């Protein structure tokens, strides 16, 4: 099984096969519009503009599981992304990334790349220790803007925790696209 075996829902309700992205490097990110990390949209869009022509596709999945920071409808989310950050990469249907209602894609991503969330995540680690201590040491997505790097064959290469900025993963993206 690979990421290419999954079908997800676009913001307009249509199905999108991730198999359509075979041969492309994917960066899959759970996003939110009312989060302290929301400015990462700017860095993600910059990466998309620079690297899309080389085979990078970024897929944003809005998620409201962390502090209710993505309360909008799909239409409101699309408008926010376009108006505030000029986002041109696909922002798909809102999903759950943890728990019994987690999207199958996210169940798979988490199992393939459980993460290395720890004290080096700084303020976010402290926040999770206080607000969701049961998540520490699990494969759960800890917060908005967790990123999964997927190679052209659909294999999950790496997980980046929320505090890792888009700019910090540029070197890994360049290597994946080489």
Automatic annotation (TrEMBL):
Presence of the UniProt keyword Metal-binding in the record: no
Pfam families, per database record: GSHPx (PF00255)
Record's keyword terms, sorted: Oxidoreductase, Peroxidase
GO molecular function: peroxidase activity
Matching SUPFAM superfamilies: Thioredoxin-like
Source species, domain of life: Bacteria
Location of the active site: 35
One biological process term in Gene Ontology: cellular response to oxidative stress
Family that this chain belongs to: Belongs to the glutathione peroxidase family.
Protein name: Glutathione peroxidase
Lineage per the UniProt record: Bacteria, Bacillati, Actinomycetota, Actinomycetes, Frankiales
